[in-house]
Amino acid sequence: MEYATLNNGVKMPMAGIGTFLLTPDEAEASCVSALQNGYRLIDTANAYCNEKAVGRAMKKSGLLREEIFLETKLWPTFYTDADAVDKTLARLDTDYIDLLLIHEPYDTSLDMYRALCEAYRAGTVRAVGISNFNEREYRAFCRSCGIIPAVNQVEAHVYYPREPLRRALVENGTVMQAWSPFTEGKRRIFEEPVLREIGAQHGKTAAQIALRFLVQRGIGVIPKTMHRERMQENLSVFDFELSDEEMERIGTLADGKSLFGWDED
Hints:
two-stranded antiparallel ribbon; eight-stranded parallel beta sheet; single chain; about 15% strand; 10 strands; globular; about 260 residues
């Protein structure tokens, strides 16, 4: 496993398991399997309605809490509750959250972020960040937020690697994390000829090349899967490196367009 050192010194695994669109039962089973197969980062959110399941999975895994990097995201309707962070902790059945993010750039983002920062100062959150902020939104946010976000979790994949945003994040000490490294099925990424050809040179799959491309650019990845074999495959991207030429070839796949309707950088 490779790790990113966040801007407050906290170390975050570069790969983890995502839980978007998983039912509570699916999320619990997926996270237990992932943790038992070497994963140490779990991503969830208030809006996914599976935080309780993630909490159960952490307990069932048999791992110590400090061995797991837990991240979740705060939704605006949850923020209106003065005890939003405490209730998030209760749903996850944990004393602290490793990374707490604002889910989207809402009108109330700064007020929400202040609540996150209060939890950070109180020690119930180890790092704070944002999600789905484009370059313009991120730069504007940094001018007023106080604590620079440790992470910005966004759509990112070989077709939309977000290079302008990535540079802005690096400039300010924020790590990019990709919630859609496989495009959520919107592109036939596993059949992409460039990825398959490069994969054949390394004894890897197109999926592993797609993940390695992001990781090698300093972008964390949180692919979702229910299958043990795919979990192991997705985690096996830290035993090889892509050459500069291979990185450039993969870079030609980018078309600069969001697949999910987000504002482009």
